[in-house]
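Figure 3 (text version): structure tokens given as input.
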């Protein structure tokens, strides 16, 4: 199953949770069997996670960092950092933390050190600031969402990120430093007409996504250059994951893989980044990302081989999550050959 390392379930109802929300089902329908929401703004996501785990509603494994750690929560001492992070670990029951623009390097390093003491994974993002992104690697963050906003990345930057062990989720759908891939992709071939999308999305949401399309002339697109940086990093031994940013639920992961291949990644490399690469990025490589004894039984049945053409990843016949079969995001009673 696909693992969305930079998910956002923006459309979920907050304040009063309701079982069966469409955005979770849309992800599962498109083969996203697990994901990490890396800043949900509120704690509502944990209620949905519990409902999915309890079988009350259908959806992917909806892991989350919980609300991000921002400047207004900057820990002044190591004890402050331990107190803040222990609440996330013990009360939210998450080992993932989003620390975003929490302060200067001394404060960021304090958060990272506390996360290590707590057995947690702190991730962050560079806010379209190249130097800030480099210091995230130096300061010991486990992950960095969004691409570094300059291209091409020089070899010293590639070596730094690889040596640091920091994961890199380029999120090409909402590109920093250039026009993103997503708007043109929503126009070309109209992926929102996918039958799994029509079966799970509200009609008004499909119409809204179609209205929000802005064409960028091919000569002004830089997606391939930024994607080429990410594949160079992956081939150098760096950890690259895939994330959709919740721009178009479910199918966004397929479009993100497609954008990755524009930079020269093979379909197999894109598939690895969207499965095992993402699982390692979010700290769940022992649970998901590949088919191995002891892991959750999550896999996709496709109508054609995506290694031959990455567009074949969208030919989903059925999704199996935890050994249970799903069709269009709902438990399936169908039989297949």
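Below: residues designed for each position.
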């Amino acid at each position: 199953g696909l693992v969305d390392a930079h998910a956002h379930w923006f459309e979920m109802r907050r304040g009063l949770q309701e079982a069966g929300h469409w955005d979770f089902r849309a992800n599962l329908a498109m083969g996203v069997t697990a994901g990490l929401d890396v800043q949900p703004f509120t704690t509502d996501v944990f209620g949905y996670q519990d409902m999915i785990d309890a079988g009350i509603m259908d959806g992917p494994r909806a892991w989350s960092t919980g609300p991000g750690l921002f400047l207004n929560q900057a820990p002044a001492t190591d004890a402050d950092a331990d107190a803040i992070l222990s609440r996330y670990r013990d009360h939210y029951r998450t080992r993932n933390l989003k620390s975003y623009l929490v302060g200067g390097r001394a404060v960021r390093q304090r958060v990272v050190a506390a996360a290590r003491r707590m057995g947690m994974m702190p991730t962050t993002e560079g806010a379209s600031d190249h130097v800030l992104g480099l210091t995230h690697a130096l300061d010991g963050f486990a992950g960095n969402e969004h691409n570094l906003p300059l291209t091409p990345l020089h070899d010293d930057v590639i070596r730094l990120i690889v040596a640091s062990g920091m994961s890199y989720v380029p999120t090409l759908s909402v590109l920093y430093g250039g026009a993103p891939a997503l708007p043109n992709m929503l126009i070309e071939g109209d992926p929102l007409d996918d039958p799994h999308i029509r079966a799970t999305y509200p009609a008004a949401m499909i119409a809204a996504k179609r209205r929000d399309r802005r064409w960028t002339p091919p000569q002004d697109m830089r997606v391939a250059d930024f994607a080429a940086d990410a594949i160079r990093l992956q081939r150098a031994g760096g950890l690259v994951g895939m994330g959709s940013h919740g721009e178009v639920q479910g199918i966004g992961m397929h479009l993100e893989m497609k954008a990755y291949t524009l930079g020269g990644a093979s379909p197999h490399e894109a598939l690895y980044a969207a499965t095992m690469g993402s699982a390692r990025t979010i700290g769940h490589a022992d649970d998901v990302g590949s088919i191995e004894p002891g892991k959750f039984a999550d896999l996709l049945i496709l109508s054609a081989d995506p290694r031959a053409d990455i567009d074949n990843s969208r030919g989903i016949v059925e999704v199996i999550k935890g050994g249970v079969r799903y069709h269009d995001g709902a438990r399936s009673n169908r039989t297949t050959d």
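The chain has a mean pLDDT of 95.
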